[in-house]
Amino acid sequence: MRAPLKLPGLLAFAACALLTGLSAAHADPAGFAAARARGELVVGVPYLAPPPVAGAKIRTPDGLDANMAEKLGASLGLPVRLRQVRAEEAGELLSAGQVDVVLADAANGQPATVAVQPTGYSTRPKAVIRSDTRLRKPADVQGRSVCMAEADTDARALAAAWGAVVRTYRVPSDALVAVREGACDVGLVDDAVWEPLVRFPEWKKFSATLPADGAKREQVWLLPASDAAGRAWLAGEMQAWSQSGAWKAMTSKWARDVAFDVYLDQEVPDCHG
């Protein structure tokens, strides 16, 4: 029979287990070796808004691209630099090491050198409409003005399919201000951010919408297929985001930021009363 482990032995065993656990918890994530060597994570995004001119107000960009990139960088313990990258040029830039990972709206047509990791975040455009109008279905919008951020290509395509007059703005808050002030009949934002936006009291009278239309689009990460460790880490990271409620947190923050942008832009009470 094995002799019972004495108290000092138990304490030493527990201390060793604790230190091992702490070491594993703080170990650098596998993969993304080039980014760690560089000391910076370069993330490609579909659209990068030009920097504001001197004296212009800083406004929240369309979508969660920047939020997702920053969160990924935080998980890796690296600062993030964004670069505008079209999906069709992702393979070349990834192979050349000019970007570490690319966030894309679709994975169609990628070469074998590119691995695709779904994010789990799917959206489609949803309408923001003043509640006392009679616009309730897409056919009602034909010939009416529909506004969205210029980066939102899905919203632009959907509004055009409705036969609407499409008007684009540099950032989402500009489009939504136009809706609030009556310059646009309908605003379009992602359906994932629509609910947290219209939950704010000042948006209650703009909480009408249209039936869901258009296909859902899931964003994906593109990274080098040769980085097996990075692919495995990224898959686990996306699972962790879904389980921790990260998407809800990011969409709620986006809605709050945009609502505040609109508040700052409207220096006088809503002209509709």
TrEMBL record:
Limits of the Solute-binding protein family 3/N-terminal domain: 40-258
InterPro entries: Solute-binding_3/MltF_N
Keywords from the UniProt entry: Signal
Entry-linked SMART domains: PBPb
Pfam families tied to this protein: SBP_bac_3
Keyword Glycoprotein included in the entry's annotation: no
Keyword Signal tagged: yes
Signal peptide region: 1-27
Protein name: Solute-binding protein family 3/N-terminal domain-containing protein
Lineage, highest ranks first: Bacteria, Pseudomonadati, Pseudomonadota, Betaproteobacteria, Burkholderiales
